[in-house]
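Chapter summary example.
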Amino acid sequence: MRTVFVLAVCAVLALTFFSACDRSPTKFDDPPDSYPDTWFPPNTLLTPADTIALVTVLDWLKVHGDEYGITAPASQLRFVHVDSDTTGRATVNLGQIYHGVSVFHKRAGFQVYAPDRVYVAWMTFDPEVSLDVSVTPDFSEAEAIRKFLDSHPDEMGYTEVHDSELMIYARRTGYRLVWRLYSNSTTGDAAAEFLYDVHTGVAIYHHYYAVP
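The structure predicted for these 212 residues follows.
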């Protein structure tokens, strides 16, 4: 009898999980307890299935997070997005933060196949992140944007910065505070990403992308 009851409960949970995928996304205004409003980007939209997947991962982290150095998800991670499909499978993407600042290219991804099946899809989370430099920039965001624009000839099409953010960047010599700038070229299917040290103004990372 107990086995039948357990199977029935699992069936109900699974049905709820899968059927929720067909419902429209809504604004997620009620973050889980202990998670600040800033944990989510503004106007985050999540379907009921997305919400179930996210809460499932947060519950999973309570049990397994310390295996990866994630001991306080509310202050070490930030919601990025959820990708879900009609089969009920969802991938929850979380970005690493340190004292409220995002850490460049440090993330954790989890695949949720059912309410009780969570797998680590990727894990670049760095539990050793720290900062031994001032958090007050000497090189402003506006100066970083101007330096980026001035360093690219007009024919390359980088005439505007479309996204900028203060971030932490891990180097072999330690962790640096940087301005991360992103720009789409107006002359072709390309984009550029640059990191400028907020204290020296030096570009310490750059990458050009082919954008489909």
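To summarize the output: Residues 1-24 have pLDDT under 50 and may be disordered.
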